[in-house]
Every structure is written in C-alpha cells, then in structure tokens.
User: Which sequence fits this backbone?
C-alpha cells in the first residue's frame, strides 16, 4: 500500500541497521524508552530489534491509556452501570481489563449491564440521541491524541442540548508522565538514555512541550512515527545525540509533526478541559498536573459532577501482577511470574496483557519465540 | 429449479413471519411450499418426508454441521443464504470429499419480512445449484420477536471421500509446504464495511464461495495432501495455529508471499487489524509435501477460485508449536491466535 509499505521496506532497514551499528560506540549501552505502546507494538510486530545491535535496548514505557488507568476508575465505571443504570460507551480494550475482584466491564455486560464498545465519540453521541430515556456516559480514555474528539463531543452535546449525555473524563498527558518517570528518587529510577516521543500525541501538541523536559533532565527526545523505519531512524538520531552529549528535542516524524502542533485542536481542548491538579496513574502513582478534567462551564455534561461516585481505592486486583513496575520501565514482561502462565491475553491478570498497546501483550503476541531463541544461546 | 414455468405463489411476500409459520399447520405448509420448495425444489425435498433417503456406495463418508448467524444478513458479495451453503460445502470438501447433500434448519424471528426470507432462500438455491449440491431436507422454527435476530440458518452436509485420499489435521510434517488459494481478509472487511456504526466505503466483496471443485482438482494431482482447512473465523492465523497444534509442529510464514488486496490492507491499517486475523469464507490452507508444490500451484491457478494461489511458508520442527513469520521488514515475529473476539457474528 502506497505511503505505508515504503516505511516497512526491508532493504532500507538493512542499510539503516548498518549505519546504526557503525554509530554505536564499543563498550557503551543505549537504553531507549519508547514511551508509547504504539512504538512497542511496531517494534514487536515488525521485528525491529532483529535489526538492532545488542548494545541498544528498548525500554517499554507507560504510553498505553488502557494500561495506566487505575483499577479504581474502572470500578467507578462499573458502579455507573450497576448502580446508576447508565449506558456506558467506551473504546474496545477497556472492556476486558480486570478491576477489583477481577471483574471486567465485559463481565458486567454479560450479566445484563449496558456496556457498549464504540469506535468514536460521534457514535456515543448517537447512542445518547437514540436512547433519550437513558443516561449515556462516554468513558473517555487516552492521551492527547484522543482528547480533541472528546472535546468535540462535549461541544456538540452543549450545542444540541443533550440532557442525557455525559463524559467520564480520564484523559492523561504525556509530558507530565515523562517528568514523573525521570523525576522520582534517583536511586530507584530506571536508567534511561533517551526517549522516543509518541508521534500521534505530537501531531496534536507539537514537539515544543518536550523542551522543558530535555532541559531539566538532560535526556534527548526524538518524536518518532509508528512505522518500523521511523523507529529505526529515530533510534539512530537518539544514539547520535547520546554520543555527542546532546539532549535536544528532535523530530523524525516531520511528515506530520511540527513544533507548534495542531493549534485548532489545542484550542478546542483548552475550551473544554482544564488541568486536573492530580491524577492517579497505574504504576506511576499520583502525578500532579498529569490529566485533564472538564471545565465548570460544561459541568452538566461531566459524569463526575452528575453522578455521585465513590472515590476509588485503586487496589491492585492481583498482587503478583507486575504491571506497575513494567509501566515504569523497571521490569520487562518476562520478569513477571504470571507472564505466560497464569496471565495470557485470553485470561489476563493485568491491563498490560489486555491492551494491544500493552507491553505484555506485545511480548506474548509477537515475541514469545524470543525467550527460547535466547535460551538456546542464539539470539537473533 | 424455480425456472420450470412460472409457478403461482399464494403467500403474500409483502407480509412478515408470524408465529403460525412455525406452528405445523396450514400457514407453515404454505411457507414451505411457496418459499423453500419454490426455490430449492428437487425430487428428494419434494417427496415431503421428514428425512431424505439416498443410496450409499461402499467407502468412506464425512458429515459436518455449521450454524450461521452473520450480521448484517446481506453483505457485499453474499448473504446468509449463500454463506450457509458455501460454509458447509467447504467443511465437507476440506476432507477431500465430494459433497453430496445438504440439510438446512431455519430459525426465524417473528416479524422478519417474508420478502427478505425469499431473497435469502433464493440466494441459497442459487448457491446450491451452482455447486451441484442439493438441499434435500430441512426444518423451520419461529421464535418470538426479540428472541433472535431475523434469521439463523444451520446447515449439515454429507460427502464421499475418494479412495486413497487421507487428509487429517494431524499429519503436517517438518519440511512440508503451506499453500493458500488467494487473498486473505476479504470477507471480514466486506462485513465490517457494511456494519452499522462502522460503515465505510469499500469495494471489497466477500470471498464466500464453494471450494469443492477446486479441492477435487487438488486431490487429483496430489492425493497425498496432508492437511486442509478453510480459514474462516479467526482468520488464517487461527487455522495455522490449530494445524500446528494438532500436528505437533511449528510453522514459518513469509510475509512477502501472503496475498492481501490493497483495499483490505488499507482497511486493516485504518482499524488497527491484522489481515491474518480477519475472516475468510472462500480460502483454504493446504499442507503438502514439498515436491507437490509446483504441480499443485499450477493446477490451482487454473481454477477461478485460486488465481492468486501461493506458497506462503513451511512447516518446521518446534516443540512449542509456534507459528512464526519472517516479516517483509526483515524481522521475525509470532503469528498468534486472536485473543477474544475481533468482530462478533462474522459468519
């Protein structure tokens, strides 16, 4: 397919791999965190690491909206369905994430709760219009990429005067999470030499919001596209910066991302949302200014205002599940005792195995042959 | 065989299915006469018994059954009627057998438009006629409005296996080649494009087709085909993983050899799907001894349902029974089963 296959070209990959190998300095390692699950997925789906020198290690970050949502928020969503009798609309993966007592939204649906998977916020609005006698809640999740469509839905609800539609807002912010990863106790922090910046997020916010980050933490950030050649090219840019002792924001994904981003989308988001003083992340804990909440002007379309929902406890459903440490980049999925034994995509114990963007799901779905390759002493 | 002079139908096709249409009385008799017999007519069905009687020659027979609940009922390239015929013929044919007869059981929802039922049964009759496999017995039940979704059709098929043909999912051996008869993912994308809530414009047609004439050609040139299976729900990945597990082997696919229509690839990109997980209704996978590949591909490509036939990989020795793929990009990855459902009610 035009404009896609060009970015998955094996011959170009070979050339690029050669130049990366030449760039890597002997005796040095490069720990590169791909913040976003989209990159983790691309790395595994195309086998990007098969082209990378052993000195380069990909560290998987928390950029998977389903994964970082704390259990308490899903418990709240279930309460909306069970106690308030609402129709809950949300994006697909969330339905299978185990919350307290390993209950899932899909399970609630099987018991008769009205939980619907939607592809867009427009679809959620349609559900509200088609069911005027029911309360319809759109459970909004996602990073900056999915925020503008939610803003549009709220503006539409206001315009149409939809009285039975609200948004349960769980939108989170990328730069704040990156600060949290680097800003913790230096003793415990995972060593990371550079970051891949999520491309779709920057198509909205631009590359500028990472500038304070590189200045403060002296780690390079390269905004990278989601195709495998994008990842390799960005890796080369990171390695070059590390070698030269630079820490700058660079943009590999120039075909979409600018420094300023999508102004129109930013304005929309700003009209509807404001910073949430603090938000609980799975894995990262409570992070200040890391999420959005709905402005008072739109309070009547804010599910948290319309329904009294108990504050969540956020207890991990399964104690042995290493999702939190995996989301911080401290552990790999294969370090988890449950991985591949008690926990598989068919029977997930934690969110990282559920979401297609989760690191555990990527390891299991695309990469579980690798452990054996390593065990046989012949890493590919 | 509704073509033998225009028969007069008394049933009002502008009407709807009523509970009485399944009640065993005159209303039901009229429905059977004016829709089912009208389109599917053949001597065995016309005999009007609760069973069909046929002679059996010495040899091996196969029997299979399949329920069809597809939504929407009509989709680009087919409908639930043609699908119910093709699906069961293919399950018979994957043993190498020649399909002989079909039975059909209809579960109808009260209120379902008779005109739609007529269209579905007409399409079923056309598919059965084209395949040369008659529907020789059937059953109709009606359930209250809201207790079903329009119409469900279960079909059963019987067939005769030619002498010397011994196809079994447990027979793949390391070194064997993996063949497919054409592009993957067409059916799933066609269904998706017509689903409410997902609708997008697409020229992709379902690949729904009866594969038994292709299979007959294949077993003629290669009676020692080891395994054969149609890659339906769960897509090619599910079928290959099933075969790998049943045979206790691994597999290595070559992504560059996988036939995928550009439109299907584009739709999958858009929706974040993997064509390997998307359903087919006219695609078979055959695992064959390496030396049969050239002859089989030559024969297959002469058949209209296998013009894009390809050898997509090979069977390997692997105690974990992993299906792996060498990507066009130059890496290697697992090809896993699909977890959960990608798209409910695809067939």
Assistant:
């Amino acid at each position: 397919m035009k404009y896609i296959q060009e970015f998955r070209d094996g011959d170009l990959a070979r050339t690029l791999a050669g130049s990366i190998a030449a760039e890597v300095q002997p005796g040095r390692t490069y720990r590169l965190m791909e913040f976003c699950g989209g990159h983790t997925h691309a790395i595994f789906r195309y086998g990007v690491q098969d082209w990378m020198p052993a000195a380069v290690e990909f560290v998987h970050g928390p950029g998977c909206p389903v994964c970082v949502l704390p259990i308490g928020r899903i418990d709240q969503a279930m309460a909306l369905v069970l106690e308030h009798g609402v129709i809950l609309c949300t994006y697909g993966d969330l339905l299978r994430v185990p919350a307290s007592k390993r209950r899932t939204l899909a399970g609630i649906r099987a018991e008769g709760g009205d939980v619907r998977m939607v592809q867009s916020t427009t679809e959620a609005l349609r559900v509200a219009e088609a069911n005027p006698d029911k309360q319809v809640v759109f459970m909004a999740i996602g990073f900056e990429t999915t925020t503008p469509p939610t803003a549009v839905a709220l503006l539409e609800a206001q315009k149409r005067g939809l009285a039975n539609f609200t948004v349960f807002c769980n939108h989170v912010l990328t730069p704040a999470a990156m600060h949290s990863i680097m800003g913790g106790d230096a003793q415990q922090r995972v060593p990371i030499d550079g970051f891949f910046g999520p491309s779709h997020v920057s198509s909205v916010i631009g590359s500028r919001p990472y500038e304070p980050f590189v200045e403060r933490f002296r780690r390079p950030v390269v905004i990278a596209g989601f195709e495998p050649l994008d990842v390799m090219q960005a890796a080369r840019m990171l390695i070059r910066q590390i070698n030269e002792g630079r820490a700058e924001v660079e943009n590999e994904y120039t075909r979409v991302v600018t420094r300023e981003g999508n102004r129109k989308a930013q304005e929309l988001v700003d009209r509807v949302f404001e910073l949430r003083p603090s938000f609980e992340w799975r894995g990262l804990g409570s992070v200040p200014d890391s999420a959005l909440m709905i402005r008072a002007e739109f309070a009547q379309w804010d599910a948290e205002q319309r329904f009294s929902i108990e504050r969540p406890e956020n207890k991990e459903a399964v104690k042995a599940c290493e999702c939190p440490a995996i989301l911080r980049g401290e552990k790999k999925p294969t370090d988890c005792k449950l991985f591949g034994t008690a926990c598989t995509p068919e029977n997930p114990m934690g969110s990282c195995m559920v979401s297609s963007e989760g690191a555990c799901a990527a390891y299991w779905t695309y990469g579980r042959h690798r452990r054996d390759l390593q065990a046989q002493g012949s890493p590919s | 065989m509704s073509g033998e002079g225009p028969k007069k139908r008394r049933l009002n096709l502008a009407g709807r299915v009523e509970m009485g249409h399944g009640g065993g009385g005159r209303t039901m008799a009229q429905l059977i006469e004016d829709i089912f017999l009208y389109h599917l007519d053949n001597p065995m069905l016309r005999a009007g018994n609760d069973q069909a009687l046929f002679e059996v020659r010495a040899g091996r027979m196969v029997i299979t059954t399949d329920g069809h609940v597809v939504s929407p009922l009509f989709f680009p390239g087919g409908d639930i009627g043609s699908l119910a015929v093709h699906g069961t013929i293919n399950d018979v044919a994957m043993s190498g057998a020649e399909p002989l007869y079909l039975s059909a059981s209809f579960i109808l929802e009260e209120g379902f438009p008779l005109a739609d039922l007529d269209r579905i049964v007409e399409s079923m009759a056309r598919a059965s006629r084209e395949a040369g496999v008659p529907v020789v017995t059937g059953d109709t039940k009606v359930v209250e409005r809201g207790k079903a979704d329009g119409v469900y059709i279960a079909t059963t098929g019987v067939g005769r296996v030619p002498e010397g043909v011994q196809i079994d999912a447990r027979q793949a051996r390391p070194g064997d080649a993996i063949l497919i008869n054409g592009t993957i993912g067409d059916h799933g994308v066609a269904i998706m494009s017509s689903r409410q809530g997902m609708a997008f414009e697409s020229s992709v047609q379902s690949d729904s087709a009866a594969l038994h004439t292709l299979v007959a050609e294949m077993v003629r040139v290669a009676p020692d085909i080891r395994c054969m299976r149609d890659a339906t729900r769960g897509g090619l990945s599910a079928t290959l993983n099933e075969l790998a597990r049943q045979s206790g082997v691994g597999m290595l696919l070559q992504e560059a050899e996988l036939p995928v229509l550009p439109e299907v690839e584009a739709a999958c990109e858009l929706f974040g799907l993997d064509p390997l997980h998307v359903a087919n209704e006219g695609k078979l996978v055959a695992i064959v001894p390496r030396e049969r590949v050239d002859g089989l591909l030559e024969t297959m490509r002469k058949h209209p349902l296998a013009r894009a036939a390809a050898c997509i990989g090979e069977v390997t020795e692997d105690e974990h029974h992993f299906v792996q793929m060498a990507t066009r990009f130059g890496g290697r990855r697992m090809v896993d089963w699909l977890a959960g459902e990608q798209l409910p009610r695809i067939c």
Summary: The interface with chain B takes residues 1, 4-5, 8-10, 13-14, 44-51, 96, 118-119, 123, 126, 228-229, 344-346, 356, 361, 364-369, 372, 380 of chain A (CB under 8 Å). Residues 372-380 of chain A have pLDDT under 50 and may be disordered.
